[in-house]
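Reminder to self: keep the SMILES exactly as supplied, no canonicalising. Ligand is zinc ion.
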Amino acid sequence: MRLLRRVLLLWTLGGAAWGLWAQPGEPARRPHPLEQLRRMAPEERERVLQNMPPERRQMLEERLERWERMAPRRKQHLDGRLSSFQQMKPEQQQALRRLARRFQETMPEGKRLEGRRALTMLQGLDPEARKRVLGSARMRERFSEQERELLREMAENMPD
Amino acid sequence: MKSTKGSACPVERGEEEILLRYCAGTLAAEGAAQLEGHVTSCSRCRMWVQEQQMVWRALESWELEPVTADFDAALLARIAREKEARPGWRGWWERAVGAWSGGLEWRVAVPAAALALLLAAGLAVTNPFRGEPVETAVRLEAREIEQAERALEDLEMLRQLEPPEEDKKL
Amino acid sequence: MMAVATFEHDAELMLRVRDGDAQSFSLLLAKHRGPVIHFLYRMIQNQAVAEELAQEVFLRVYRSRASYEPTAKFTTWLFRIASHVALNHIRDGKHERHQESLDGEGTEGIGRQVASRAPTVEQEMVRESRLAEVRRTVESLPAKQRAAVLMHKYQEMDYAQIAAALECSESAVKSLLFRAYETLRAKLAHLAGRG
Ligand SMILES: [Zn+2]
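Structure tokens returned for the bound complex:
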């Protein structure tokens, strides 16, 4: 089961990113670099990352460590989200990154939590239902017009 | 509780407060035992106590939502921002904030990461990480490391778009 | 005996924060963040707002580190700040309209799910409606009574501590609690008999 999952994951991760990083002449598909890093023993990782600029390296290591601390099902879920994301067209990916940044910058801190929950709910709806929910008194009460528009755009651009 | 005012009944004496303490379990053992004797024989007090216990139980049924996972991170980031004007505490606050990297403000982290990527891209053309090739069994090109960084960045973005309680799910 | 140890420990941590130790602040935060947020949540009944106000509370704790003197128990001091923030928020009318609705459209469903049990739909509806009644009734209490009850019931603070937190006399606390519980008994006592 674990092996199957890993193979599937590598396949999707590797497949999606292939065009970007495959080099002509490379023998076979290698796992996505992220997956390679995850699998490395600490000393090995240390060697591989030793020439990185310290700030970037610290950020990368922190993120790897956070991932390692997650429960297995959580890892699986997030990797699934990532692989769906990576299967989107590059311009769609870029659009979501932009929207996510706008969410962090413009959604007031006190509303972000509700925003994240609303987004999760909206994702599961078809466009018609989404429109209905976003137009409901309850949503209008909680979010401004721009905020609801942002949530709608994000829900539309989220990976499957 | 000494019954000096004629009646031993707290309700009659307007001293229900002692019944409240009895219900909350904050009455000393001796007083509680004494009162218990009265309560079993006095219907008014018994009713009072029963009702209070029901209120107690009703209040206990009030379940709470989990605290947002990045609560501390957000707070420490706010404190770090406050401290920016006075750099004395900065070093250790940044370390504290660093321990909660989830709280790194995107408006700081994202441009910084983007700048780092740009710089790295520039360097990569000429001399990736300006170091000699690493002689190990496993090697990752600078370009591949950038891909890993990008993927981690995207993973973080996707994580932060989900409600924080998802983090607690097993 | 517990109380003494806690008193010394928290106060000591706070004194270390005063001297510039971040680790001690993190420890205080880890220990008290839950109780403070829960108190604020029950006061305001909106999780996002409660967390926002809790941020304000801990910011104030941090800002007043320089002038901190361990004259009172740390929790009492903390809840004085928390009560202050909550009562101000309510007084300014900021809480209007943001109480989370009780039946909901689904946006906050996730946090509420109780995974350990699998009650029937009917049981779940009864539980939900009872909880809704508890929340409504607590919300109907005047703010100061509400604060007193919440500290008494959930933080298990004694009259003297509640008095210090609400900056009033102990007899005023008794009267606040008495009136509050009278209302709660009238409105909630039937709940336990049902279902
Ligand atoms: Zn009696």
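Points to follow up:
Chain B touches chain A through 47 residues (CB under 8 Å).
The pocket of zinc ion is lined by residues B 9, 11, 38, 42, 44-45 (CB under 6 Å).
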